């Protein structure tokens, strides 16, 4: 499958912003500015990539509503600036109402962004990438993911790091198994500083 791409030239002005998507404590809703959006077309896509990300914001936020072609619990992952080196670490905590579990990876070549890429139930994720343009520190992220499977849903909390001081200028989000189905939606926002 061909990748679906978006760049900062596809900015959607005047797009309504919903308070229900706010994941961080960044004050006014006017602090969020739409950079780019992608809706997967028929045929699906193995990944979605945001490129030419401007360095004019304090933080980034990615909002995802995904459907998958894999009939099982699969993860989403990301790479920054096309870096596939062993520079990523991820941590997660998950619960389904009756059990909880946790896990971690270190020195991985991808950043885990959430689990639950199901064919029949949409999965919603909100990812904050902190200080993405700061060239004096490694980059950190946090992600909240959830899905409802008619009473047997899951909630996931992720955190992680990309051990690189370069400013993030591109984000590639991939389905680790299968593809993103048609109508999966990805939105990239810039968060202004206080």
Short description:
By secondary structure, the protein is mostly beta strands.
Overall description:
With 194 residues, the protein is mainly beta. Helix content is 0%, strand content 47%. It contains no helices and 13 strands. A hairpin with a 4-residue loop joins β6 and β7 (100-108). The protein is globular and about 45 Å long. The N and C termini lie far apart (41 Å).
* Strand tally: 13
Pairing-aware structural class of the strands and helices?
Answer: mainly beta
The rounded distance between the terminal residues' Cα atoms is 41 Å
C-alpha Rg, in Å?
Answer: 16 Å
Number of DSSP helices?
Answer: 0
N to C succession of SSEs: EEEEEEEEEEEEE
Features:
single chain; 194 residues; mainly beta; 8-stranded antiparallel sheet; 5-stranded mixed sheet; 13 strands; 47% strand; globular
Strand-helix topology:
Blueprint: E1 4-7, E2 32-39, E3 47-51, E4 59-66, E5 75-80, E6 88-95, E7 100-108, E8 111-115, E9 123-130, E10 139-147, E11 154-162, E12 171-175, E13 185-191
């Amino acid at each position: 499958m061909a990748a679906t791409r978006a760049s900062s030239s596809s900015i959607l002005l005047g797009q309504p912003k919903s308070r229900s998507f706010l994941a961080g404590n960044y004050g006014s809703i006017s602090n969020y500015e739409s950079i780019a959006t992608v809706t997967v077309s028929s045929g699906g896509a193995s990944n979605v990539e945001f490129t030419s990300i401007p360095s004019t914001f304090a933080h980034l936020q990615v909002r995802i509503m995904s459907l998958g072609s894999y009939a099982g619990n699969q993860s989403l992952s990301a790479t920054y600036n096309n870096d596939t080196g062993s520079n990523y670490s991820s941590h997660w905590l998950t619960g389904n109402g009756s059990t909880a579990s946790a896990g971690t990876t270190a020195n991985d070549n991808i950043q885990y962004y959430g689990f639950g890429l199901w064919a029949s139930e949409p999965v919603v994720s909100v990812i904050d990438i902190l200080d993405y343009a700061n060239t004096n520190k490694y980059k950190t992220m946090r992600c909240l993911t959830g899905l409802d499977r008619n009473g047997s849903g899951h909630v996931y909390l992720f955190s992680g790091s990309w051990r690189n001081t370069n400013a993030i200028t591109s984000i590639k989000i991939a389905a680790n198994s299968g593809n993103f189905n048609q109508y999966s939606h990805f939105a990239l926002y810039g968060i202004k500083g206080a």
